[in-house]
Specification:
Blueprint lengths: L6 E5 L4 H12 L3 E6 L3 H11 L4 E5 L5 H15 L4 E4 L15 H29 L2 E6 L13 H21 L4 E8 L5 H4 L11 H7 L8 H12 L10 E4 L6 H13 L1
Parallel strand pairs: 1-2, 1-4, 2-3, 4-5, 5-6, 6-7
Bound molecules: nicotinamide-adenine-dinucleotide (NAD).
Length: 266
């Protein structure tokens, strides 16, 4: 087990990718603070206990500084340290053309997806700096790195912001022994990507994505969780400031089409 004795905070861990990250890190031996704005945090913390792991569930909104401070104090009070922070909580936001997006919709997406990681990191860092060691892993998206998504302007902007945040923070805190990296998932099958929790009630046709992705399948939450476990472990001690795409090769699809075109034209 690569994370024996470590303590990890995972935000947005009540479902989807965050839940799988929490379970995966627990299987690797970490004690987990399961953080979510909903009561689902308690269910996931119970799942970890069923795996004979140690966990605490804390209901906390990552946009609320007071709640975040209380949460960090509770985690340190219970476990005594914080080795890993996974900034995973995120929302998809409106699927609208720019002129249709309301100012408050823009603000909400930026608040959860970009200000949230800033606030939680700001609260956790003094603990990691004191320890002179820590791993921060931000869950961005290919929407903020390589390809934009049509009708996801605030989402793409927030995730691109998280990429800049990751690189700058890695430079600022490297001398304290703290590694900061970001993961850009491609299309991962969760409630967010399936649109079940989308206010507009949209759903996604998985077959379109399966055909476009070189590995011919959608991603699973485990695909991201396994990468988080690696980045959180000592195996990744010399990796920092990196933006790691985990998308089954989806963002290579334009490159992959070139040879086909070339041969067809001959
Ligand atoms: N699913 C994908 O295809 C995909 C692709 C790229 C990136 N991502 C990113 O991965 C992360 C997880 O996505 P998911 O698909 O599991 O989403 P999801 O909607 O299934 O789960 C998100 C979780 O975050 C929680 N949350 C939302 N707002 C919060 C807040 N203010 N404070 C605390 N918790 C909050 C929700 O309650 C939920 O449990 C997100 O940051 C998302 O942008 C997902």
């Amino acid at each position: 087990m690569r994370l024996n004795g470590k303590v990890a905070i995972v935000t947005g861990a009540g479902q989807g990718i965050g839940r799988e990250i929490a379970l995966c890190l627990a299987r690797e031996g970490a004690r987990i603070a399961v953080i979510d704005v909903t009561d689902k945090a308690f269910t996931v913390a119970d799942e970890i206990k069923l795996l004979n792991g140690d966990s605490v569930a804390i209901k906390c909104d990552v946009t609320n500084w007071q709640e975040i401070n209380n949460m960090v104090n509770d985690v340190v009070g219970k476990f005594g340290r914080i080795d890993v922070l996974v900034n995973n909580a995120g929302i998809r936001g409106p699927r609208s053309f720019i002129t249709e997006i309301k100012e408050e919709e823009w603000d909400e997406v930026i608040a959860v997806n970009l200000k949230g990681p800033f606030l939680v990191t700001k609260a956790v860092l003094p603990v990691m700096i004191k320890q002179k060691k820590g791993k921060i892993i931000n869950i961005s998206s290919i929407a903020g790195m390589i390809s934009g998504l049509f009708g996801a302007l605030p989402y793409s902007a927030s995730k691109a912001g998280l990429v800049g945040f990751t690189r700058s923070l890695a430079v600022e805190v490297g001398s304290y022994g703290i590694n900061v990296n970001a993961i850009c998932p491609g299309f991962i099958a969760t409630e967010m990507s399936l649109g079940k929790v989308d206010k507009g009630g949209h759903t996604v046709d998985f077959d379109i994505f399966r055909n476009e992705v070189p590995l011919k399948r959608e991603g699973k939450p485990e695909d991201i969780a396994n990468l988080v476990a690696f980045l959180a472990s000592d195996d990744a001690n010399y990796i920092t400031g990196q933006i790691i795409v985990c998308d089954g090769g989806w963002t290579l699809r334009l490159v992959g089409q070139h040879p086909v075109k070339f041969y067809n034209n001959r």
